[in-house]
Amino acid sequence: MFIAGFAIIGIIALLVVIFIAMYNGLVGLRNQVKNAWAQIDVQLKRRHDLIPNLVESVKGYMQHERGTLEAVTNARAGAVKAVDSGVAAQAKAEGELSQALGRLFAVAESYPDLKANQNFLALQEELTSTENKISFARQFYNDSVMKYNNQTQMFPSNIVAAMGGFKAGEFFEVTVEAEREAPKVSFS
Predict the structure, then answer these.
(1) What secondary structure letter does DSSP report for 186?
(2) 146/168 Cα distance (integer angstroms)
(3) Helices (H) and strands (E) in the chain — how many of each?
(4) Of 29, 110, 112, 183, whose Cβ has the fewest other Cβ atoms within 10 Å?
(5) Is the pTM of this model over 0.70?
(6) Residue 86 burial class via C-beta count within 10 angstroms: exposed 0-12, middle 13-18, buried 19 and up
(7) Cα–Cα distance between 155 and 68 in angstroms, integer?
(8) What is the CB-side half-sphere exposure of residue 186 using CA atoms within 13 A?
(9) 29 assigned to some structural domain
């Protein structure tokens, strides 16, 4: 009887340790997802800060492209506004901003003086670099969300997740269909 009591206490202690380890693992993964989102946010802020400078440097050259410049400005405003609207809304707004920037750079090809402007070239390079950083940050974020979601949905940690109130994370997905299409390259 005395040994059975110790065995029961030992089993209970082991279950408590396992529960604590799973709970702490879920907290760690949730924090990793938050950190990954913060890294995306830093790069998006940088992108949002560069765009007004780019638009200003382009204005003088692109007198007849007012609509394109307004589209970039409006898309930037929408992206800034979507910052606290959740992952899906922000992903959609950022996709629209990427499309507007793509159109701006495509139109800029028609202006040789603009393409030779050092300020424009520097800003274009900064934006390209920032886009690459955003892409890597999105990938890291989505990988972090996948690990976290796996832990919250797999047995037995899903029990701990349900008891601890852990909710599945949201992926940063492309919602603008035009972004999914391969770019058209023409040498004519």
Answers:
(1) -
(2) 9
(3) 7, 0
(4) 183
(5) yes
(6) exposed
(7) 51
(8) 3
(9) yes
